[in-house]
Amino acid sequence: KKNVLIIGAGGVAQVVAHKCAQNNDLLGDIHIASRTVSKCDAIIASVHEKSAMKVDGVLQGHALDALDVDATSALIRDTGSQIVINVGSPFVNMSVLDACIATGAAYIDTAIHEEPGKICETPPWYGNYEWKKREICAEKGITAILGAGFDPGVVNAYARYAIDTFMDTVTAIDIVDINAGSHGKYFATNFDPEINFREFTGTVYSWQSGAWQENEMFEVGHDWDLPVVGTQRAYLSGHDEVHSLSANYPDADVRFWMGFGAHYINVFTVLKNLGLLSEQPVTTAEGLEVVPLKVVKACLPDPASLAPNYTGKTCIGDFVKGIKNGQPVEVFVYNVADHAEAYAEVGSQGISYTAGVPPVAAALLVADGTWDANAMKNMEELPPAPFLTQLDRLGLPTRVKDENGDRPWNA
Ligand code: NDP
User: Fold this and answer.
1) Domains of the chain, start order
2) 362 lines ligand 1 (CB under 6 A)
3) Residue ranges of E strands in 25-105
4) What is the pLDDT of residues 357-402, one digit of tens each?
5) What is the bridge-based pairing of β-strands 106-109 and 81-86?
6) pTM for this predicted structure
7) Which InterPro entries does the UniProt entry name for this protein (predicted)?
8) CA 411, CA 398: separation in Å to the nearest integer?
9) Measured from the CB, is residue 6 less than 6 Å from ligand 1?
10) 302 CB less than 6 Å from ligand 1?
């Protein structure tokens, strides 16, 4: 058994806490630390409300500034935590990782590090911060699992699984992320608007023909024919996993596609063109200095408030193309998740659910030794089968679709 410290108390942390509680017989004590301790307490109350703790055990909240490495290290030691699941805002990644390196705890996160004030990171994404710590993790035997959410995360494991199982060589990995759900608001982002918009304001980078290619956001669209959610338009977007997958499979084209409706694109474009998505401060006529993006965030619905009325499904998966015995092969590895089911189970919408379940699956594999790599790893560098098995058990089943039909991955 290994005690777990969850960093952050937002939408994803809520799911992580519920899933850790449901599996506390395999994990141990569960601690939640965030800047605002009342948010930790609210998550703890929701876990008890659902009677989610599998066995009697510790579930405790703590106030923490996770940018403070010493304070974070002290909390890891005080709570006897051997696994840290970092689902705080991506600004805290490097300080939390440093605290894990200092204490020997295993580190798991779901997004690349970002520096406040930068619009968004450019390739090589992991090379900018995380991979600079690879050597010290290896030296000290620290397990650090990077990008263990759904995308990045599960989609990396899907790619590895598809390549290992169905092909001799891989030629293309197209990751498609569709939220076909509806929250009923005029406009809202599914998670922190500041982080969400950052993904779409910069240049779109993809890996094609063995090199980084640059496009504008919403420049390249493609209609994908998908199970359950039907034909959906998605746009070439930048995403963390394009970097690690292209480093591990440099001969394959690696692209990330995110689904957007015309209404979202319209509102986003207006906000952007007006300068309202800028993180650079402006001064009003009254002499008030404001950051437009922060004002937009304050006006938009709190992403967590969308959960109770969210309906519909998400479909996220990988179209992987390659060659097997000299013949071209193509397979779609995917998951479909349901917003209302997620809310009924853990009180969160489907986007938080798909992001929060996978890091708990990873933690369970670290706890039982299967993924305790004593080194820094991206998800496609770890054996996928035990992970997909855990995801099946935890509520995110994997399916495979190809010319032989549409079936569970392990059928
Ligand atoms: P939220 O914004 O809802 O929550 C972030 C939490 O981090 C808040 O509780 C916030 O506290 C806390 N926090 C911020 N700064 C600090 C600090 N200095 N010290 C302690 N706590 C801090 O985010 P989400 O739950 O939506 O997302 C969490 C992470 O998951 C993000 O990194 C996001 O990019 C990632 N993600 C990954 C996905 C994937 O599939 N891979 C999908 C969706 C999200 P406070 O409330 O006080 O500000």
Assistant:
1) 3-149+353-392 (3.40.50.720), 154-347 (3.30.360.10)
2) no
3) 30-34, 59-63, 81-86
4) 999 999 999 999 999 999 999 999 999 999 999 999 999 999 999 9
5) parallel
6) 0.97
7) NAD(P)-bd_dom_sf, Sacchrp_dh-like_C, Sacchrp_dh_NADP-bd
8) 10
9) no
10) no
Ligand 1 atom 3, closest CA: 10
What 3-state DSSP class applies to 204?
strand
Amino acid at 14: Q
Ligand 1 and 9: CB distance under 6 A:
yes
Out of 5, 7, 34, mutate this one to test ligand 1's pocket (max ligand atoms within 8 Å of CB): namely 34
Across-strand partners of 321? Answer: 172, 330
CA distances from 226 to 176, 181, 206, 230, 342 (A): 9, 14, 22, 5, 21
Instruction: Find out whether 246 and 207 touch, Cβ atoms under 8 Å.
Output: yes
Ligand 1 atom nearest 150 alpha carbon = 40
Indicate if ligand 1 lies below 6 Å from the C-beta of 61. Answer: no
The pLDDT tens digits for 210-234 are 999 999 999 999 999 999 999 999 9
